[in-house]
Design brief:
alpha+beta; 12-stranded mixed β-sheet; about 15% strand
Length: about 425
């Protein structure tokens, strides 16, 4: 074993010499390792950045906020069930019942969606804006933290009661319709109806990376007047401080009574909290991470096979050299260490290049999606290096053992 320490640096030197002597061959050999390692680091950085961004977004809904809808919204791992498709919508009366009968609830805001079968359009002069998020709500929606005003004000309960044609718009809707002009007291057209702009909302912190804030909100009863057939409600419920769990139980009890749900049947609605949505999101990203590992493994497998092939070629090319080394006293272990070291240096070089490639992917993603704070997680970098070295060791065993088993007399006669 005394020769092992000296064999390792000698093996590194020989491996680097082989890389320099066969640059193109070495580059093609480790290409799969570069791609596989780069995929691990690049996708890992995007997932880490996305996890941080989405987690912060979901938690910005507030630690005391419940989102209630007739089925689960947000991150789902499957399609709607037949029972979910035929559920009756939530109603304004149910929102009122929650407000009156749930002592742990601070406020409830009905959020009435416009007709889902339509593509809604807003217009100001020659500027058109499509795919807007058109809904009606009440003054209490301001208390949810999602309607902080940039310009002007939010509409009042009196304006809703009188069905006045007033509107508040999202920050990106303002930019699309007015550019940088003053929107207050201007009239816009939404789906053929005229509304006076009284306020512009800041982009909510609870918005996905790359999403535009194209909200167009009008008073609740104005929406009922404009779209009398609109029925789909979402309820935004804000609990008293520190009473989220209690409020959730109270809301569930009231809704089961109001929706006539038998005691032995499951809920016909779904209550989401920020932490539940974070957990659902991480279940989805776990599947993505698994797919990433599988795809990266294919690249690493191809790279490993390439390393094994090139090492077998190297053994054949250097048969006479191996014979000379054995003739002057080199042991089998020395030969194994030499060729394993060459394989590891090849794949480690590929791993380092893969780290650079993955970091470039991460930076490119940040450039294309500025709102996505990508970062290279330590686990991805460490995993990339460890796996690349492991690939070298695993696929270098056969060539190294083949070289070590060569008979020195036969090897010296090899031409």
């Amino acid at each position: 074993m005394g020769l092992l320490p000296s064999s390792f640096p000698n093996g590194v030197g020989l491996a680097l010499g082989t890389l320099r002597g066969h640059k193109l061959r070495s580059a093609l050999t480790v290409l799969g390792v570069v791609i596989g390692t780069g995929a691990i680091i690049g996708v890992g950085s995007i997932l880490a950045g996305l996890d941080g961004a989405i987690t912060n977004i979901l938690r910005s809904f507030g630690t005391n906020t419940l989102i209630v809808f007739k089925f689960k919204i947000g991150f789902r791992t499957g399609n709607l069930s037949p029972e979910e498709r035929v559920r009756k919508p939530l109603t304004l009366e149910q929102a009122r019942a929650i407000r009156e009968r749930c002592p742990s609830v601070k406020l409830v805001s009905p959020y009435l969606f416009a007709n889902w079968q339509m593509i809604h359009k807003a217009r100001f002069k020659a500027n058109d804006l499509y795919n807007i998020d058109f809904a009606g709500t009440e003054e209490s929606f301001v208390g949810s933290g999602q309607a902080e005003m940039l310009y002007g004000r939010f509409f009042t309960a009196a304006e809703s009661e009188h069905k006045l044609p007033v509107v508040v718009i999202g920050e990106d809707a303002y930019k699309g319709l007015f550019s940088t002009g003053d929107p207050i007291a201007k009239w816009i057209e939404v789906d053929g109806h005229q509304f006076e702009v009284i306020g512009v909302m800041k982009r909510p912190s609870a918005s996905m990376p790359g999403d535009n804030d194209n909200r167009i909100l009008i008073p609740y009863y104005t929406m009922r007047k404009v779209f009398p057939n609109a029925t789909e409600h979402m309820l935004v419920v804000v609990a008293e401080d520190g009473q989220l769990a209690k409020a959730q139980d109270e809301v569930r009890g009231v809704l089961r009574q109001e929706r006539r749900v038998p005691h032995d049947k499951p809920d016909t609605f779904f209550i989401s909290t920020a932490e539940q949505m974070v957990e659902d999101f991480r279940k989805v990203t776990a599947v993505t991470a698994l797919v990433m590992v599988v795809l990266s493994s294919i690249g690493l497998l191809v790279g490993g096979i390439g390393v094994m092939n090139i090492m077998l070629v190297s053994v054949t090319e250097r048969t006479r050299e191996i014979g000379i080394r054995k003739a002057v006293g080199a042991r089998r272990l020395d030969i194994v260490v030499q060729f394993l070291t060459e394989a590891v240096v090849l794949t480690a070089a590929g791993g380092l290049l893969g780290m650079l490639f993955g970091w470039s992917v991460s930076m490119a993603a940040r450039f294309v999606f500025p709102s996505l704070p990508t970062e290279v997680p330590l686990w991805a970098a460490a995993l990339g290096v460890i796996v690349s070295v492991g690939i070298g060791l695993f696929f270098g065993i056969w060539p190294a053992s083949k070289a070590a088993r060569l008979d020195p007399v036969v090897a010296l006669r090899y031409e």
